[in-house]
Structures are given as C-alpha cells and as structure tokens.
C-alpha cells in the first residue's frame, strides 16, 4: 500500500496498540475495545506523506486518530487512521 502511494519509509518497528481491536473487512480498521491489543508496525512519515496516502480513493473516509503505541517497551505518540 505504501509503495503504491509513492512512500518508502525506513525503520518499520513492531508496535502494540492497547485497548483497540482490529476488524478485517474489505479493508482493515481499528476499533476501541477494552482489554484488547492490536499488533502491527509503526513507521515515521511526514504529514504530507500521510495526506498523499489517505487521499487515495480506496481509503476514502479514514480519519486520523491520536493514539499511544508501545514500541520496544516505550510508549510513543502516533496517528492511526480509522473509519
């Protein structure tokens, strides 16, 4: 997905997002859920890169949500996009 949007970020890191769950449909989306944990990757992107990625028609309607992810036993602020 990132490459199709012209993004090739470095430094993919395993991340955990506590109190969220994932719903798999045509596209995956996250939903708040107590006592759940979602595992994924965290990468550093600029706001311009995120705008380019989420302005594509196939991800229309996804909006940024501020979250705190756990990476390497540290908690970091992040954005996730949810519908």
Can you describe this structure?
This protein has 83 residues and is mainly beta. It has one domain (3-82): Roll (Hypothetical upf0131 protein ytfp). It is 10% helix and 54% strand. It has one helix and four strands; from the N terminus they run E-E-H-E-E. The chain has one helix at 47-54, and strands at residues 13-24, 28-42, 63-71, 74-82. The model has no long low-confidence stretch (mean pLDDT 86).
CATH homologous group name: Gamma-glutamyl cyclotransferase-like
Instruction: Tell me which oligomeric state these chains represent.
Output: single chain
Q: What is the CATH first-level class name? A: Alpha Beta
CATH topology assignment: Hypothetical upf0131 protein ytfp
Jot down its keywords:
globular; 83 residues; Hypothetical upf0131 protein ytfp; mainly beta; 1 helix; two-stranded antiparallel ribbon; 4 strands; two-stranded antiparallel sheet
Lay out the secondary structure.
Elements (H helix, E strand, L loop, with lengths): L12 E12 L3 E15 L4 H8 L8 E9 L2 E9 L1
Antiparallel strand pairs: 1-2, 3-4
Please sum up the structure shown.
This protein has 83 residues and is mainly beta. Helix content is 10%, strand content 54%. It is globular and about 35 Å long.
